[in-house]
From TrEMBL:
Residues 6-64 form the SKP1 component POZ domain. This is SKP1-like protein. One of its GO terms (biological process) is jasmonic acid mediated signaling pathway. Gene3D superfamilies: Potassium Channel Kv1.1, Chain A.
Amino acid sequence: MSTRRKVTLKSSDGKVFEVEEDVIIQSQTIKHLIEDDCADDGISLANVTGEILDKVIVYCKQHAECKKNAEKSGYKDNEELKKEDHCKNHERFMKVDQETLYDLISASSYLNIKSLMNICCQKVADMIKGKKLDEIRKTLNIKNDFTPEEEEQIRKDHQWAFA
């Protein structure tokens, strides 16, 4: 029985993770480092904490498992299975506080994991959907740095967005 190749990942706070290569290559950043033979001594991820890296690995494992199940089930493009499984997994996975969500967005960008970035951004979109401008600012902790005159001009120029 052959053993799967493992990749060592080191978080910014010194935590070490051993992850199967076929799981973690969902990260284009890590995939390129492996292809360029830069992963033999481990990969240091200066912009990702251990807590967030652990969550990213969980996501990648779930995503890889879903893909494997789709292939076993004979789905050619696996869209139907992905929709069913991903919705359940993503819903559970995305039950995080706002700070963790932003850290996941940052990590998915740094690691270049498009599918993770997509579900994180969808979560943010769901958080602000249907809210008024002031509510969005409060939800996302955005300071209004426009003068009243500038804000009035923006509202005039973009009336369609404020209807």
